[in-house]
Amino acid sequence: xxxxxxITFIHVAELGSFTKAAxxxxxxxxxxxxxxxxxxxxLGCLLFERINHTITLTERGHELVSYAHRICALTDEFRxxxxxxxxxxxxxxxxxxxxxxxxxxxxxxxxxxNKYPSISVRFSTGDTGDMLDKIDHNEADxxxxxxxxxxxxxxxxxxxxxxxxxxxxxxxxxxAGVKDLSIKDIMNEPFVLTEYGQGYRRIFDRELxxxxxxxxxxxxxxxxxxxxxxxxxxxxxxxxxxxxxxDLIESGKLCYLAVTDMNIDIWKQxxxxxxxxxxxxxxxxxxxxxxxxxxx
Amino acid sequence: xxxxxxITFIHVAELGSFTKAAxxxxxxxxxxxxxxxxxxxxLGCLLFERINHTITLTERGHELVSYAHRICALTDEFRxxxxxxxxxxxxxxxxxxxxxxxxxxxxxxxxxxNKYPSISVRFSTGDTGDMLDKIDHNEADxxxxxxxxxxxxxxxxxxxxxxxxxxxxxxxxxxAGVKDLSIKDIMNEPFVLTEYGQGYRRIFDRELxxxxxxxxxxxxxxxxxxxxxxxxxxxxxxxxxxxxxxDLIESGKLCYLAVTDMNIDIWKQxxxxxxxxxxxxxxxxxxxxxxxxxxx
DNA sequence: TCCTGAATATCAATTTTTTCGATGGTAAAT
DNA sequence: ATTTACCATCGAAAAAATTGATATTCAGGA
Lengths: 296, 296
Fold this sequence. Notes:
Two copies of one chain form a homodimer. By secondary structure, the first copy, chain A, is of the alpha/beta class. Chain A has three domains: 3-84, Arc Repressor Mutant, subunit A, CATH 1.10.10.10; 91-161 and 267-291, Periplasmic binding protein-like II (D-Maltodextrin-Binding Protein, domain 2, 3-Layer(aba) Sandwich); 163-265, 3-Layer(aba) Sandwich (D-Maltodextrin-Binding Protein, domain 2), CATH 3.40.190. The first copy, chain A, has helices at residues 3-15, 18-25, 29-43, 59-84, 98-115, 128-136, 183-186, 199-210, 224-233, 242-250, 280-291, and strands at residues 48-51, 54-57, 91-96, 120-125, 142-147, 155-163, 165-170, 192-193, 219-220, 237-241, 254-257, 266-273. In chain A, the strands form four sheets. Chain A has a five-stranded mixed β-sheet with strand order 4-3-5-12-6, with helices on both faces. Chain A has a three-stranded antiparallel β-sheet with strand order 10-7-11. In chain A, β3 (91-96), α5 and β4 form a beta-alpha-beta unit. At the A-B interface, β1 and α4 of A face β1 and α4 of B. The structure holds a DNA duplex.
């Protein structure tokens, strides 16, 4: 039982004529005969009585008319929902590093939600490896990396931005305001860094290794909000993206250290898989991110 | 969008794999790919995201799963109803002459209805011409004729019976009890007959014509119950099938006249069109009539 | 690191299904 | 009595579905 036959059947039943149905549907008359016969054979019952070139629905036929209408109504309904739906509904799963998640929720989420209340957003956090895995397995719709600049033919980089980073310390630090510092000047101070092997920490370590240096932090912790609050209270140094330290720099609690011999390129990238189907919601989200400051 | 594709789609969605669906459905894997692609092309949207050999339903896909299930459920429901239904429901349209209708309702209907309460019966009345027209146009399911014996390759005669007929008069008639009457003896008496040109009246007139005779009745009326009651009260004669006069003969109000030179073959036939689809109800009805006295 | 196995896409060939056009028979209309 | 309208049927043609082989990619194991 195929929809084609049901549609033909409905027309025949309504017009009371194979010939008229053929005209209306653009088939030849023999096709109509065949399709109806096909239905009848499959269902094992007559749908129309043919007596003297006049067709009349049998009881079964009557029942089928009702079912056929309901079935077609459902397919129509689906098609309609399809086109409407363009705007409606939508779930997006975004995976970011901890720090970005925090920043996005505090900075952008409220506004985004106000603009697009029907889009529901799910945030998860993970390191770069986790995140790439997730888009590779379609467990995340988009990710935001905070790492070395990524290129990969399988990924679409929807937005990217070089991230300013600085060595930061409490404003009371002996290095505060000192000009032309070298990495070697500070490398033996107590450091607070993010977790080993991940994100910009990994790049940081690699850059040090290039110079045959190594720093063993006194505290390692992923949560950058904790790092900044530790820095404010203690005489320690960290290496962080500006967007993390922004508030405390502005309020004067922390300050940048003028280290001149270590320039690290950290990139923030908004990435999705090239095979990803971009739902209306996803497009909306991506456009929103593109239109707004990535980090502020 | 054909049901075949929807069924495939459901299986793929449930199994999360084209390959497994192919095995389960007995298709090759390329067929599944093709069918899903077909659906996607037609709907103009992705149903599954394919990322690294893993398929995931898109939002649209999810919606379609729900619709597809509902659609398939409807077809299943119809098929089930189809088979159940064998016994249930049913309307039969029976057309008979007035007299037969009366007789059937008073004699058989109650019993039939008790045995098959779910079959609803519609009775109409008409003369032989009307009735034949009606089965020719499928406006009646079965008819019962009271006329000359009919043969026709397009009709199925489910049951037939020669109908005894007699000239009848009031028991007080001067002809009551007289033996060896001839038609000529009574032809000038006042007659009450059924309507001209119809059923056995037509045959009666024809038989008279063969003998170059003619009778002009004083009263013509279709309703045989009225004829018999007129006969009982007046000194008149009629020519009627026995089943019509049975009660009044038995109660002694009417009597048969012993006219010996006019033997008319009137037949009662249960007829339907040879192309008629015999529903369960129709079969039941016909069997019932066959199993019972046609006229009693 | 290099296989192997598992998964989907794709393409040409084949099989199946659908459609058409012509024909025939019958009933209704003119 | 002739024409028209209608459905069934059949063989041929066209279209569609299916297959099998092949390609590609990824995951996992040796």
